[in-house]
Design brief:
Helices cover 37% and strands 13% of the residues. The protein is of the alpha/beta class and 171 residues long. The chain has one domain: 3-Layer(aba) Sandwich (Aminopeptidase), CATH 3.40.630. The protein has a 4-stranded mixed β-sheet, sandwiched between helices. Helix 2 (75-93) links the parallel strand 2 (59-62) and strand 3 (98-101). The protein is globular.
C-alpha cells in the first residue's frame, strides 16, 4: 500500500520487510503496484473515482497522506462527496465513520490514493478505513459477525459516493 511513487519513503514508512508499514526497496518494486498503476494510467480518462478499502478505524480519508499541508485542488468537492458517502453509510447500521484528510490521521507516503490524485486525471480518490473503530474491538481481525454489516454499510457509502460523482460530473 505504501509502494507508490508519491513522496516514496518520506514519512510513515519503514525499510524493514518485517514492519507493517514496509514500503518496499523502491517505488513500484512490487508487481501489484506496477500492475495497478499501469491499469489506472491506461484508463484514467474513463475512471472518475478510486477507493482503497483498508482496516481499521471507521474513517473516510481524503488525500494527501504524506504532508498535512498538501491539499488537493478539489478538496471541497472531495469533502462534500465523502460526507455524502458517510451519511449513507451511517444510515445502514448507525456506524460512526468520520471524514478526515489522511495526514490528519497519521502521515504516510507512497499510498495509492495519493498517487492516483497526484499523477492521474482521476478526480476522486479515497481510502476507506473499515470497521472496527478501535483495536480492542478486533483491529485488523474483524470479528466474523461484523463482516456482513460492514459490507452492507460500505456498499451504501460507495454507492452514494458514485451517485454524487455522477450527478456532479461536468460533461
Amino acid at each position: 500500500f505504501r509502494n507508490f511513487d508519491v513522496e516514496f519513503g518520506v514519512t510513515g514508512t519503514s525499510v524493514s520487510p518485517c514492519s507493517y508499514i514496509y514500503c518496499g526497496p523502491r517505488a513500484f518494486s512490487e508487481p501489484e503496484t506496477m500492475s495497478l498503476s499501469a491499469f489506472l494510467k491506461q484508463n484514467e480518462d474513463k475512471i472518475v473515482a478510486y477507493v482503497a478499502l483498508h482496516t481499521f478505524s471507521q474513517l473516510w480519508l481524503m488525500p494527501f497522506g504524506y504532508d498535512v499541508n498538501a491539499l488537493p485542488s478539489n478538496l471541497n468537492e472531495l469533502d462534500e462527496t465523502a460526507h455524502e458517502a458517510v451519511r449513507a453509510l451511517r444510515s445502514v447500521h448507525h456506524s460512526n465513520y468520520r471524514v478526515l484528510r489522511s495526514a490528519q490521521l497519521y502521515p504516510a507516503s507512497g499510498d495509492a490514493p495519493d498517487w492516483v490524485k497526484k499523477f492521474t486525471k482521476i478526480p476522486y480518490s479515497y481510502t476507506v478505513e473499515l470497521r472496527p473503530d478501535h483495536y480492542q474491538k478486533g483491529g485488523f481481525v474483524l470479528p466474523e459477525n461484523q463482516i456482513i454489516p460492514t459490507g452492507e454499510e460500505i456498499y451504501a457509502g460507495v454507492r452514494a459516493m458514485a451517485e454524487h460523482v455522477v450527478k456532479n460530473m461536468k460533461l
